[in-house]
Design a protein that fits this description.
Number of domains: 1
Number of strands: 0
Number of helices: 11
Distance between the termini: 78 Å
Radius of gyration: 29 Å
Structural class: mainly alpha
Length: about 270
């Protein structure tokens, strides 16, 4: 029949608020996409725990805290009269910084040597982000450890040696804390660049304790522009502050840049 309406047709049912709601609810709504990557503070905290989770990492941290106060106590019994406490604090702080450099190497090169880097980059594929987190983590650990060591060294000096001038000591303490962070980051950069713990440690200590002193004996003017240990001593004593700060900054920038470039290009076996 012309014009007849099928009672089973959907058009025979009028649109109601209920049917409109059902129609809208049947339309799939895309779920919001959230990033699953960990934030940088979370990665930094993770890297700090990783650095102290191994026996070697804990041993280095303890050695870095204890070495300078013990050396200060031993030298105080035989040293001649010293006018200012800034010199001994800065000198002993360099011992702490040299040990903390090894902690930085272990944080980066240690992962390649122990092959844990596969898991690390599987969880966080952005390699430069991982290196940035490691750098901040070892810098924080280095600053804390250096602060503890410097405070203990200052306490030993106060007890063992009388008549010292403490006017420049606050600056020396601040420099030692900064040096602990800087040398830890230098170690992390070189470790990331070489990807081999023995090679990175040998190269760094040979350079700082062998090559640069040799250059200093032959070409003092060149050595003064590249020696980070002398830069730390100058800063602690208030000498050549701008030049010394630039030397330390250059070491940090160059080692981290080399570590970032070579880390992104290295194959993960």
């Amino acid at each position: 029949m012309t014009g007849a309406v099928d009672p089973c047709s959907p058009r025979s049912f009028p649109e109601t608020p209920m049917t409109d709601t059902l129609n809208r609810s049947s339309t799939p709504v895309p779920a919001p996409v959230r990033s699953t990557g960990a934030s940088l503070p979370a990665l930094v905290g993770l890297e700090m725990r990783k650095s102290l989770s191994t026996r070697s990492g804990r041993s280095l941290a303890v050695a870095a805290v204890a070495l300078a106060p013990v050396a200060t106590a031993l030298s105080a019994t035989t040293a001649d009269a010293i006018g200012s406490a800034a010199g001994p604090i800065g000198g002993m702080g360099m011992l702490t910084a040299l040990v903390l450099m090894s902690l930085g190497v272990l944080a980066t090169a240690g992962e390649w040597s122990q092959r844990t880097v596969q898991t690390t980059f599987l969880l966080v594929p952005q390699r430069r982000r991982v290196l940035a987190a490691k750098a901040v983590a070892v810098a924080s650990l280095g600053a804390v450890v250096a602060a503890l060591s410097a405070a203990l060294s200052a306490g030993v000096l106060a007890v063992a040696m009388h008549g010292l001038s403490w006017d420049e000591a606050p600056r020396a303490l601040a420099v030692v804390v900064a040096a602990g962070a800087v040398f830890a980051v230098i170690g992390a950069g070189v470790g990331a660049a070489l990807g081999n713990t023995p090679g990175a440690l040998t190269s760094l200590y040979l350079l700082l304790l062998g090559v640069i002193p040799l250059v200093e004996s032959l070409e003092p003017e060149i050595a003064q522009k590249i020696n980070p240990a002398e830069a730390v001593m100058n800063l602690s004593m208030g000498h050549l502050q701008t030049t010394s700060a630039l030397i330390l900054s250059g070491w940090v920038v160059l080692t981290l840049a080399a570590g970032a470039v070579l880390t992104t290009r290295r194959q993960v076996a």
